[in-house]
Amino acid sequence: MRVMAQLAMVMNLDKCIGCHTCSVTCKQAWTNRAGTEYVWFNNVETRPGQGYPRTYQDQERWKGGWELNRRGRLRLRAGGRLKKLLTIFANPLMPSIQDYYEPWTYDYDRLFSAPVGEDTPVARPRSLISGEPTKISWSANWDDNLAGGPELAPSDPVLRKVSDQVRLEFERAFMFYLPRICEHCLNPSCVASCPSGALYKRTEDGIVLVDQDRCRGWRMCVTGCPYKKVYFNHRTGKAEKCTFCFPRVEVGIPTVCSETCVGRLRYIGLVLYDADRVAEAAATPDEKDLYEAQKSVLLDPHDPRVQAAARASGIQEDWLEAARRSPVYSLIFDYGVALPLHPEYRTMPMVWYIPPLSPVVDVLTGTGNDGEDAGNLFGAIDSLRIPIGYLAELFTAGDPEPVRLVLRRLAAMRSYMRRINLGQDRDESIAAAVGMSGRQVEDMHRLLALAPYDERYVIPRAHAEQGAQLEELATGCSLDYEGGPGMAGPFGEASGRAAPIAVESFHALRERQSGEELEEAPDLRGRINLLNWDGKGTPEGLFPPRRNGGEEK
Amino acid sequence: MSALDVVLWVAVPYVAIAVFVLGHVWRYRYDKFGWTTRSSQMYESRLLRIGSPLFHFGILVVLLGHIGGLVIPKSWTEAAGVSETAYHATAVALGTVAGVATLGGLAILIYRRRTVGPVFSATTRNDKLMYVLLALTIVLGLAATVVANLAGGGYDYRTTISPWFRSIFYLRPDPDLMAGAPPLFQLHAISAMALFAIWPFTRLVHMLTAPLGYLTRPYIVYRSRDERRAPRRGWEPSR
Ligand code: SF4
Ligand code: SF4
């Protein structure tokens, strides 16, 4: 047993209101640069829908993730090592910018420079890729809220799998939001696909990162990830991906997407897992068993033997403590309501989801029934095949049973808690019907509905004695690069040292929050991140230069 | 032996080699972030899918051919029982196929670069200079072979150019050998040396990091946060 720690996330889909706040704040923090205009480390897609990039779940086409070969061994679906090297000159499975969308801006200057005339001037869209005028015809969430439904939704790869059972009836059907980030998989196919070995999984916390100095732009990781969560920065020619906001979690604060989530539906915690068993579990023959296999790799942090093994592999006490308090572990095991996204890709994804009960409730109340009555809900869960079949394709490789159990638990919680709210007796039989005790249901309710910040995010700090680079000083930030933002090196805009991604703004933020001075942090380097601007000082570039009189900045 | 010959066939090669080697070292140390293919496949892949493999596989064969022709002495192949005619026939046949593939691929790539808007706007001046020298070198090389073979039985560079090439690395450069070579071969060599001199400063650097290690390394790479730096004194793990 080789115990490793992994930072994992759970998202409770019932509470997502599809506001995209997470996407926007993530973009502000990480991908508001040239070359990453089209990149959303966090995106929120409406299901049913095509997703972003379009139809990424269709692995017949995109060939992401792993599959089993004839001998039952894991192999990359896009082909093995030799095939990768032979197709390195032109990757046949690489999504084009059109599969994401062509980013654009507007000709705002026209609004001011147009000559006086009859008509109001308009700002026309321009492609950020070619600079030419463009027609906007797709975006990262073009089919938001089922927009273009009847034409677009049928090409949802997940829906296609279930739709021969049931015709898609849009008005009466269901809809929910699926926020997605990189899954920080236990068996990451992106890492396995990288010819240069630039992608790696951190041993301390399992975060999957791209070493910007080692990446050579071979683009195989983009193909390798079945979730299409590695992106190619077309200006720097390097791959970039969600970082789990490592500069933040290293100091014990949650990722930007979690921090800003309006629905407060994200949970971050540690899980311990047995690294020696990952490959074996990922090679489970029947796809439908993968959900259980994935759970079997995770270890019980309360088990003294696990703790001993964890100590032996160098995991420190406070991390073990955090693993015991992990909300993620509770949601996966104690309450059994969190499911992995597409376990059939065999990457062992570590962002888990509580499937939404709301489609079921909506159908019930739509037909005039009481959507909070346990009997009604249980009956509906058993008979409504569309939502269950669809959710099962997303979370359990098509096996409806685990999804049904989760939904029954959520339904039980709903009716059990309603009785309490209405001042009625606690009805143990409701809890017992889903194999829980009333106490457990109340605890689950607390975690799902009321839990405060420090219960939703149990993030142990990175160990300073393990990483001297974590000293909060400009001389030792965790991305210790010399030189500045790398966009202006001697070999064109893409060369030079990597900009220490967001670390600069992170430090700037801390400095400002704790500093007394009303002045700019020296390492902002003239770049303004509005998210971090707290009203102190007058950063250059945010305000026009003072003409005279005003003191020089 | 004129002064020009010494400059061209002694000084320039050494300068080119020095720039090539030191340039790579320097770039690797200071610009790892810029060390990339800067692929433009995101923008356009229909033409790239034909042009790029054609060019790259072609140039790899050309490279092997050059190693065979320049590095392996004639006496060795003859000792192995390969006659000059047999060698020449193979070299010309293989070389022409590979050369044409390379040139065709390059033509498609340059056409693509010029006509596809996003690709063109992602082309730097550095790229343009590199493309000119690369194309020039390939065209001159192909032309030298074709002209020599049309004009007669071909030119036996293995008695002049190859020994000169090796003499450079023996540190006993012999410019006389090269001074007598046909002008097209001379031009080809000059443009190649220029190409090598700018090589480390262009995107061609990706060649030196061809990811052959991928064939043998384990699939999943684990790395510790600490790897970059040993803990400072007093910061060692406490256990
Ligand atoms: S989800 Fe993340 S860790 Fe998993 S394969 Fe994709 S990029 Fe890699
Ligand atoms: S911020 Fe939260 S509620 Fe809003 S879309 Fe993102 S995950 Fe959903």
Automatic annotation (TrEMBL), chain A:
<keyword id="KW-0479">Metal-binding</keyword>
<dbReference type="GO" id="GO:0009325">
    <property type="term" value="C:nitrate reductase complex"/>
</dbReference>
<dbReference type="GO" id="GO:0051539">
    <property type="term" value="F:4 iron, 4 sulfur cluster binding"/>
</dbReference>
<dbReference type="InterPro" id="IPR017896">
    <property type="entry name" value="4Fe4S_Fe-S-bd"/>
</dbReference>
<dbReference type="GO" id="GO:0009055">
    <property type="term" value="F:electron transfer activity"/>
</dbReference>
<dbReference type="GO" id="GO:0046872">
    <property type="term" value="F:metal ion binding"/>
</dbReference>
<dbReference type="Pfam" id="PF14711">
    <property type="entry name" value="Nitr_red_bet_C"/>
</dbReference>
<dbReference type="GO" id="GO:0016020">
    <property type="term" value="C:membrane"/>
</dbReference>
<dbReference type="InterPro" id="IPR029263">
    <property type="entry name" value="Nitr_red_bet_C"/>
</dbReference>
<feature type="region of interest" description="Disordered">
    <location>
        <begin position="511"/>
        <end position="553"/>
    </location>
</feature>
<feature type="domain" description="4Fe-4S ferredoxin-type">
    <location>
        <begin position="7"/>
        <end position="36"/>
    </location>
</feature>
<keyword id="KW-0004">4Fe-4S</keyword>
<protein>
    <submittedName>
        <fullName>Respiratory nitrate reductase beta subunit</fullName>
    </submittedName>
</protein>
<keyword id="KW-0677">Repeat</keyword>
<dbReference type="Pfam" id="PF13247">
    <property type="entry name" value="Fer4_11"/>
</dbReference>
<keyword id="KW-0249">Electron transport</keyword>
<keyword id="KW-0408">Iron</keyword>
<dbReference type="InterPro" id="IPR038262">
    <property type="entry name" value="Nitr_red_bet_C_sf"/>
</dbReference>
<dbReference type="GO" id="GO:0009061">
    <property type="term" value="P:anaerobic respiration"/>
</dbReference>
<dbReference type="GO" id="GO:0042126">
    <property type="term" value="P:nitrate metabolic process"/>
</dbReference>
<feature type="domain" description="4Fe-4S ferredoxin-type">
    <location>
        <begin position="206"/>
        <end position="235"/>
    </location>
</feature>
<dbReference type="InterPro" id="IPR006547">
    <property type="entry name" value="NO3_Rdtase_bsu"/>
</dbReference>
TrEMBL record, chain B:
<dbReference type="InterPro" id="IPR023234">
    <property type="entry name" value="NarG-like_domain"/>
</dbReference>
<feature type="domain" description="NarG-like">
    <location>
        <begin position="6"/>
        <end position="225"/>
    </location>
</feature>
<feature type="transmembrane region" description="Helical">
    <location>
        <begin position="87"/>
        <end position="111"/>
    </location>
</feature>
<dbReference type="GO" id="GO:0009325">
    <property type="term" value="C:nitrate reductase complex"/>
</dbReference>
<dbReference type="GO" id="GO:0009055">
    <property type="term" value="F:electron transfer activity"/>
</dbReference>
<feature type="binding site" description="axial binding residue">
    <location>
        <position position="188"/>
    </location>
    <ligand>
        <name>heme b 1</name>
    </ligand>
</feature>
<keyword id="KW-0472">Membrane</keyword>
<dbReference type="InterPro" id="IPR003816">
    <property type="entry name" value="Nitrate_red_gam"/>
</dbReference>
<keyword id="KW-0479">Metal-binding</keyword>
<dbReference type="GO" id="GO:0005886">
    <property type="term" value="C:plasma membrane"/>
</dbReference>
<keyword id="KW-0813">Transport</keyword>
<keyword id="KW-1003">Cell membrane</keyword>
<keyword id="KW-1133">Transmembrane helix</keyword>
<feature type="transmembrane region" description="Helical">
    <location>
        <begin position="184"/>
        <end position="202"/>
    </location>
</feature>
<comment type="similarity">
    <text>In the central section; belongs to the NarJ/NarW family.</text>
</comment>
<dbReference type="Pfam" id="PF02665">
    <property type="entry name" value="Nitrate_red_gam"/>
</dbReference>
<dbReference type="GO" id="GO:0046872">
    <property type="term" value="F:metal ion binding"/>
</dbReference>
<keyword id="KW-0349">Heme</keyword>
<dbReference type="InterPro" id="IPR051936">
    <property type="entry name" value="Heme-iron_electron_transfer"/>
</dbReference>
<feature type="transmembrane region" description="Helical">
    <location>
        <begin position="131"/>
        <end position="151"/>
    </location>
</feature>
<dbReference type="GO" id="GO:0019645">
    <property type="term" value="P:anaerobic electron transport chain"/>
</dbReference>
<feature type="binding site" description="axial binding residue">
    <location>
        <position position="66"/>
    </location>
    <ligand>
        <name>heme b 2</name>
    </ligand>
</feature>
